[in-house]
Specification:
The chain is 22% helix and 25% strand. By secondary structure, the protein is α/β, with parallel strands linked by helices. Strand 2, helix 2 and strand 3 form a beta-alpha-beta unit.
């Protein structure tokens, strides 16, 4: 919360979701301020913690973010030239 007033960012295009999308990883206010276009969540398949949790998934959905998860999408590569963005998924 203390960071919110200090945020003066260019449009946030890609966000690496903090702490695997745990319940305390990121607040709704923070997501509302960032408005990420793409969110990458690094999380293990069938992890015992239930990450990413539903409340965090809902926060990203309300922001209109495209959410990519390593447990569902496999390896995720994000490549940018500064003008364009390419996202590739590699899943077996």
């Amino acid at each position: 919360q203390s960071l919110l007033p200090a945020l003066d960012l260019l449009p946030t295009v890609v966000l690496n979701s903090p702490h695997h999308g745990s319940a305390t990883s990121i607040s709704a206010d923070f997501i509302d301020k960032l408005q990420p276009k793409v969110v990458v969540i690094g999380v293990g398949r069938a992890n015992p913690y239930g990450h990413p949790v539903e409340v965090v998934r809902e926060r990203y959905a309300r922001a209109g973010s495209e959410v990519l998860r390593t447990d569902l999408d496999g390896q995720i590569d994000v490549v940018t030239s500064g003008a364009s963005l390419q996202v590739r998924r590699f899943r077996h």
